[in-house]
Amino acid sequence: MNLNATLIFQTLVFFILAVFTMKFVWPPLMKAIEERRAKIADGLAAADRGKAELAQAQARVSLIEASTKADNQSRLADADKQAAAVIEQARQEAEAERARILAQAKLDAQQEQQRAREQLRDAVAELAVKGAEQILKREVNAAAHADLLGQLKAQL
């Protein structure tokens, strides 16, 4: 075989193969490459959108946290106010109860004092009658001299 003929034949086959590749193989390959490039671009765009949505979601979360903290603080302040009001009301009720108990104790003491005075008057009147019996050496009738004994009690 002739080297020139082989070289020409190989060149001719090469060009036919190049034309065939450019006409039938290259367009589907380029189409696949373009589709892949479009997918990658879409994926990158979706990632950017996801990052933007994540930033927005984090901003919303921080706003919600701030409003929740403010709400919790206001609730705590309300609870403190309510606790102070309950304590003040209990204090007032305790003061009223204390005043009532003191008034009742004073009234009881006055009544007891009055009873003690009456008993003391009766005892003194009885002692006076016994003393008068001793002095007169005779029995004094308490029923007969009730008016006199009443005046004596009143003076005591």
Structure description:
The protein has 156 residues and is mainly alpha-helical. It has one domain (3-155). The protein has helices at residues 3-136, 146-155. α1 packs across α2 (146-155). The longest helix has 134 residues, at 3-136.
**Form type:** rod-shaped
Strand fraction equals under 5%
Give the number of helices.
2
Taking all Cα atoms into account, the compactness measure Rg is 60 Å
* Count of distinct structural domains: 1
- Specify the helix fraction band: over 70%
User: What order do the helices and strands follow?
Assistant: HH
Describe the main β-sheet briefly.
Answer: none
Distance between the termini: 170 Å
Low-confidence residue ranges: none
What class do helices, strands and sheet pairing give? mainly alpha
List keywords for this structure.
mainly alpha; 156 residues; 92% helix; proton-transporting ATP synthase activity, rotational mechanism
Task: Compose a concise summary of this entry.
By secondary structure, the protein is mostly helical. The chain has two helices and no strands. The longest helix has 134 residues.
Topology, pairings included?
Layout lengths: L2 H134 L9 H10 L1
